[in-house]
Amino acid sequence: MDRIKSVSGFFKMYIEGFRTMTWGKTLWIIILIKLFIMFAVLKVFFFPNILSKRFNTNEQKSEYVKEQLINKQ
Amino acid sequence: MNVDVSLIDWSRAQFALTAMYHWLFVPLTLGLGVIMAVMESLYYKTGNEKWKRTAKFWMKLFGVNFAIGVATGIILEFEFGTNWSNYSWFVGDIFGAPLAIEGIIAFFMEATFIAVMFFGWKKVSKGFHLASTWLTVFGATISALWILIANAWMQNPVGMEFNPDTVRNEMNDFWALALSPIAINKFLHTVISSWLVGAAFVVGISSWFLLKKREKEFSIDSIKIAAIVGTIGIVLSVITGDSSAHQVAQKQPMKLAAMEGLYDGGNGVGLVAVGLLSCDKEPNDGKDPDIFNITFPKMLSFLANRDIDSYVPGINDIINGGYPTEKGVALSTQEKMDRGKLAIAALADFSKAKKAKDSTALYDAKQRLDENFKYFGYGYFKAPEDAVPNVSLVFYSFRIMVILAAYFLLLFIVVWIINHKKKFENMKWLQWVCLLSIPLAYITSQAGWIVAEVGRQPWAIQDILPVMAAVSDISVASVKTTFFIFLVLLTVLFVAELSIMIKQIKLGPEAEDTLHG
Q: Best of B60, B123, B124 to disrupt the A interface by mutation (most A CBs within 10 Å)?
């Protein structure tokens, strides 16, 4: 058994582990597709941060939320 | 300004959909993690290869669940920024600190040690590998801790001060937030009750192997460990659940009243074991709240106040006020609404005084705001009845959670005894019961969250921000669109997980390497 004896051995373990995956690769493909859809599609096109999209400064955001909270009653 | 009710409902529905979907993966990660770590500990202690093989199989399923579930919680953070922007701003750094700590510590712990767990069997010592497995489980558990601290703050906001300049709650006592008794209890109850899901999963899948006449020794060993972990988990969950109900009684009496369908409180109130609520019951309408119920006498008073004759307020009492509390006579909801409107008006006056640079008016407005801030959220209600959550949903969810937890306690004990007597392998009917009980474990876990979250309604943050003020000013159509996108996406992911999971289960433990074919 080729035991890890150094920090670089740890990195080799990761590389070898990923390289020799078989069905585990399917999981990684699903993870990557999922992350792509989440961050490159959903976040960009459907889930903007409303306050950051509408305002540039924290003062403007504060004023807007204050107005919302005062007028929503 | 009127808030479109359908906007609130669609935003809530979307949040509920994604939270419940996320919660399909988390309890299995937490529960299965403990079981596989116990199995590996037995391998470390005994040196018996069968425990290594057993642990490796369950690790494989842990890996599938972890991979599909990982990052699904981030979608909730997207929704905070889009659908709940007022809330996101209002909570200030309260959520930022715990979530940042979660991201940094827990994520890196999991990412580091999960790789050793899967890739390191032949690369590190047995002891180091075992430590990595436990640290993976610990990392997942710590992840849950920070999320639950944030959630507990929404149930009982502490350790902060509202800044009317920024309109944000600013943390002034991190430890009051992190070590709030509600946060600690919520963490323990959530994590430990997840062991039930892991145990039901292992017992059910092992039963499937026995039904297929495969992997007899593996299945018997797996059931032995899982039934013990499940039993311990449920017993500890009863203890933490009892503490949780006691805390709810002190901090969220409306939630407790909804859990019990209790409209008119009193002294020495019984705990409803089973019951059927009237469909058309409204607060203060004089009608009977239930069609029938069976109660444990005086138990609700004991649960709420540790005194069998103590007073527990019902929904009508909380609306009408006037009952005694530790802090004096309770205000009516109308009085709280009046105080809330004073707080909102004070915020408006503060803003005007700031613009006019009128320091006297500024000071006066701040004084009025501070005096009434703890009722701030009540100022948004049109009627006192707006403070009542969906009683039926909370009532039935609570009973489903408790009854199913009792069922699983009985099931695990019976299975463990029969398995110990070496008779389980021949009891096909019980194997079928175990297999078919897997979905029930998920229902138990989800029902617990429905009690916690629907019971908190209409509040996003208890007493200071209702959902109607927390929601963003966006179009209903956009929320509906993203709701259905999520529905499709999450369904596809769920089907993918199920198909991979079923494939790996069918391959069985003989497909030795955890991620390598």
A: B123
Top pLDDT among B71 and A36 is at: A36
Interface of A with B (CB under 8 A): 1-4, 9, 13-14, 16-17, 20-24, 26-28, 30-31, 34-35, 37-38, 42-43, 46-52, 58, 61-62, 65-66, 68-73
Cβ(B160)–Cβ(B171) below 8 Å:
yes
pLDDT digits (tens, 9 = 90+) for B329-356: 999 999 999 999 999 999 999 999 999 9
**ipTM of the assembly?**
0.86
By Cβ distance, the residue of B64, B78, B165 closest to A43 is B78
Shortest CA distance to B483 belongs to which of B78, B68, B17, B87?
Answer: B17
Say how far residue B329 (Cα) sits from the centre of its chain.
Answer: 32
Q: What are phi and psi of B275, to 5 degrees?
A: -175, 170
- Between B171 and B102, the more confident residue is B171
Decide if B88 and A51 are in contact by the 8 Å CB cutoff.
yes
Q: In this predicted structure, what is the pLDDT of residue A16?
A: 81
Q: How many residues does chain A have?
A: 73
Confidence of residue B517 (pLDDT cuts 50, 70, 90): very low
**DSSP letter for each residue of B273-298:** EEEEE-TT--TTS-S-SEEEEEEETT
Numbers of helices and strands, H then E, in chain A:
4, 0
d(CA B327, CA B209): 58
The separation between CA B93 and the C-alpha centre of its own chain, rounded to angstroms, equals: 22
Nearest chain A CA: its distance from B377 CA (Å): 9
pLDDT digits (tens, 9 = 90+) for B121-169: 888 899 999 999 999 999 889 888 888 998 999 999 999 999 999 999 9
Name the average pLDDT for chain B.
Answer: 92
User: What type of residue is B254?
Assistant: M
Omega before B98 within 30 of 0, i.e. cis: no
CA distance B241 to chain A (A): 35
Give mean pLDDT, residues A1-18: 74
* Residue A8 to chain B, least CA–CA distance (Å): 13
Statement: residue A27 has pLDDT above 90: no
Report yes or no: B485 at the A interface, CB cutoff 8 Å. yes
Q: Which of A17, A27, A50 sits opposite B67 (nearest CB)?
A: A27
